[in-house]
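Retro notes, item 3 of 5
We never archived the inputs for the zinc ion complex last cycle. Fixing that now. Sequence and ligand:
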Amino acid sequence: MRAAVTRGQGLMELVDVGEPGTPGPGQVLVAPEAVGLCGSDFHYFLGDIGTIEDGSALYPRIQGHEAAGTVVEVGADCPGLATGMRVALWPVSSCGHCYACRIGRGNACSSISLIGVHADGALQEQLLVPAAQAFPVGDQDPALAALIEPVSIAMRAAVRGTVAEGEHVVVLGAGPIGQALALVATDRGASVLLVDTVASRLARGAPLGADVLEVSAGESFVAAAREWAGPDGPEVVFEATGVPALVQTSVELVAQAGRVVVVGLSSAPAPIRVGDLPFKEIDLLGTSCCASGEFAQAVELVGRRRDVAAGLVTHEFTLEQAPEAIAYAIEHPAEVMKAVVRVDAP
Ligand SMILES: [Zn+2]
Ligand SMILES: [Zn+2]
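Structure as it came back at the time:
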């Protein structure tokens, strides 16, 4: 069968690989149909992933963690799953006994394994996954079902930021995760302001019910975004660009006693005016993947708002085109919102 293998920094190749075999107990064999490419894929592909400094340790790897597919075969002990079902993959598997796992936060497990990052992902014709990581999505279109994973990231981030009805939420970065954050926060009844430098990305905010603010790179928008939120400033700020300096901007922007949630990835350090943390008594939070229940909520939300979610898929490629797809998406950020590899396409 065919697989897109990332062999080294910036190098992905289509090759023949062995089939994964039949599923054991608690496993299902899934044929991926649609795989979204995301900013974290670009980081991985380019060898710049969060806190991992030695890029060469990452390869070879079959990427693809935003996946929907069809169940081809079901092992023993897989309640609720049957051959032919369409599923979305929750990429997270955790150790179960580290501190994070013990307190019920396996999504932040110290030995987390993510499909498509630490284990081979969905840019191949078949893969075995634990049944607990396959969520039935009914007759959802595969490309839309592949959006469930990025929406689940936003679902978790909103839980971290305890976004509540009537609150003002500023989202820095109107890429797919920023859009997903706007979707989740408006769904919770919050008012949302999306901030970006790219007008075409902001234009997608209106169907989500978000206000938008277009800024120039390097221009301060703290005053404008605070004014949007009213006298107190925004209760919640999501940093979804991965631009290190914008962490300090978020700290300045957020209301006294508010919450800043850092979602964007970068391996670069960022200076923060430390005194702002105690002076404003803000919560500066990280967020990682999501819990199983949050993934289920993302399945429900994408199903209920499928018209809105559909607007985020801008490009489709075949599996054979996966190397072009990732290069194209990296080179055309203003044009590509979400590129999806249709593994099911001829
Ligand atoms: Zn992703
Ligand atoms: Zn753990």
